[in-house]
Every structure is written in structure tokens, then in C-alpha cells.
Amino acid sequence: MLHVSYPRSRPTSLPQPPRPPRRSTGPAPESTRIPARRTRTFACEDDVWNRLEARARTLECSVDWLVREALKRLLESVPPSESAKEKLPAPLAPPRPLAATLVFLFGGKATPIVGDRFVLGRSGRSADLVLRDPAVSRQHAIVERHGGIHVLADMASANGVIVNRRRVARAVLHPGDVVEIGPFSLVVEASSG
Length: 193
Description:
18% of the residues lie in helices and 30% in strands. By secondary structure, the chain is an alpha+beta fold. The strands form 3 sheets. A 6-stranded antiparallel beta sheet has the order 4-3-13-12-9-10, with no helix packed on it. A 5-stranded mixed beta sheet has the order 6-5-7-8-11, with no helix packed on it. A two-stranded antiparallel ribbon has the order 1-2. It starts with a strand and ends with a strand.
């Protein structure tokens, strides 16, 4: 999942909006004062981000501008009335928790993922599963348990985390997934006990 901050500058190839005239005498009256822009963030899945980047390249604009314009058009197309609320689909049910505890199969042995936070890394002091190699950061990745769901997150490591041959920032772990950290391949399996 990617976290993106907005707003950023528009691409130079697109026309800039007109700027309000500058006033040099005293503060502007309350009715004409322009509110300061605040940066907002949102999260999206990697595949959605990849599609946004591809569309932005096609349109020769920034992803920031594309998302901002898409949100503006979406908000303009839906009237803010009670009837609009009734037409929205019901929210999706939360993912079903996994019943089994997960383990990493690595080096011929199974290491159970225990606790709410399970750190993978090079450091013997701060990692629950130690992977000794210079390509592995001291705290490379973390598995967080939310209910019965295990979420793997890259901890801003230098070389990243790969799950099932795709580099990810975050991923929900399932039995059969292959996690690659540096030169190590860890297979995720359900615990037999």
C-alpha cells in the first residue's frame, strides 16, 4: 500500500489557474481571504498506483494532478443530497481473520510468527527472526497481527521486500506466500499445531 501526500505542483505543460491579484495595503478582508492549502494523504494498493502512473505517463501529467482532477470530477458528478447517499453501495465486509497461526519456513525449520509485532532483520537485538546478510537491514520488515490477519510491512529498508515476486510496501500474508528479503526466501505456511 502506498501513502501519497497532496497537493504538489502541476506539470508545466498544463495551463496554470489564474492567480488572485496581490494586495499591498494591509490585510485582506475576511470575505476575500484565501485559505492556506493543507497537505492531505491517502493510501492505495500498489496495483492502483501502477495504473495511475501509467495513465499519467499517457496523459503527460503528474500522478498528483491526475488524482486531484479525478477527485474533482467525481465530486462534481455526484450531487450532495440524501438521495445520493442511498445510491452508494454497502461497505465491504472486513476480511475474514485467518484461523491458523502462520510460520516462516526457512533454513529447514519453521519459525512461528508470534505476538502482535514480529520483526525480521539482521540485528540479533531487535529482530525476532534474524537474517544475517549485509543486504538485510537491522530492522528490515515487520509482521503485524490485526485480529487473525498478518500484515507484512517494509520498514523503509534499503533493498525492499518482495512477496510472490512483487516488491511491496505492505502485504497481507497467506499460506503459500514466498517472502524474499535480501538473498533469503521465506515460505509462509499455516501452523500445524
